[in-house]
Amino acid sequence: MNDWFNRKKKMSKAGRPRVNSKSAVPSPLSEFLDSHWDTTGLTNDQAAGKFGFLASNVISMWRTGRTAVPISRLPMIADLLKVDMAMLWVLWLKQSKLRNDGVPATLIEVLERRLVTANEAEVINTLRHATKNADPSFSASALGAIARAAAP
User: What is the pLDDT along the chain (152 residues), one digit of tens a residue?
Assistant: First the structure.
């Protein structure tokens, strides 16, 4: 009885308690999915249905890193989580790198520096318009002023 109570106390979210698995390869993508999944308003069972899966354990396995998220599922995940595909794609590459040394780390680094989300693109486009595409360099104080203006 005490063992069950202790396990129940450890659960922070609905469902069974997390079990460490030797086959799990936690990645920035699995951690992002797990930490943001509540924003979908869906249980794993409901999400499995949307993806066309018969069993909800696939969603759980994505969230824990036991199974890699296929790249073909990123558009629907982005839609469910209401996040930008570019950001998810970089997280997917990081997941792939952890599972396959053939994924060049430099590719991930370059994409992370160059890809922007839709919201970031609005800021960049506004800046380009304001500077008439002059590509000026900015001092630390000018960057600080931009950051302060953008802060909520």
Answer: 444 334 433 334 544 445 556 678 999 999 999 999 999 999 999 999 999 999 889 999 999 999 999 999 999 999 999 998 988 999 999 999 999 989 999 989 988 888 888 888 888 888 888 888 888 888 999 888 888 888 87
Q: What is the DSSP string of 2-44?
A: HHHHHHHHH--SSSSPP---TT----HHHHHHHHHGGGGT--H
Give, in order, the Cα–Cα distances in Å from 45 to each of 1, 57, 64, 78. 28, 8, 16, 18
Report helix, strand or coil for 75: helix
How many C-beta atoms surround the C-beta of residue 65 within 10 A?
Answer: 23
Residue 98: its H or E element: helix 85-99
| CA–CA distances in Å: residue 67 to residues 9, 50, 57, 113, 124 | 27, 18, 10, 27, 36
Q: What does pTM read for this prediction?
A: 0.69
